[in-house]
Amino acid sequence: GMAYNIKITEEERRRFKNEKTKEVAYRKFASMLKHFWSGGAYMFTSWRADVDKQATGLVKSHAYTILGVYFLPNLKNRPRKRTEERMFIKIRNPHGDAARTKVWQGKWGRDSNEMKRKTGWERFVQVRTRINKNDDAQFLMALDDFAEYHNDVKVTIDPAIW
Fold this sequence. Notes:
The chain is α+β, with helices and mostly antiparallel strands. The chain is about 35% helix and about 25% strand. The chain has seven helices and six strands, in the order E-H-H-E-H-E-H-E-H-H-E-H-E. Strands 1-6-2-3-4-5 form a six-stranded antiparallel sheet. Helix 1 (about 10-15) crosses helix 2 (about 20-40). The longest helix is centred in the first third of the chain and has 17 residues, at about 20-40.
């Protein structure tokens, strides 16, 4: 198969933080991930070397599997969500554990307020991404957090599919 390595440059990270360029930068990144995922590519990610494991639960220099890339529509009669709030990456840490020492501690993590809510946008996200809350190794990450913490995305493509 063919392999690609997607890495965000420091310039692109700055665009994610700038209010004027943020929406376009997130859309570009989101559509690239979605393109590979929809095409049946196998995707893996790792986290930046400066990620604090105690604060985030993320283990650096360790491969995580990307199980899904979801770009959800805005709900009718609700406040509109920006691209980075509607794009979710479903991730699996092969070493995730019930003790919660190696699971994502941020928003949309297993123990987060977003995952505890049973109504509204939060419930919609849980249902559409088919997150398995009983799997200690599986978690969701919103696009803005993923863009902030990930080091790179490795993509492997089966030539028979592409």
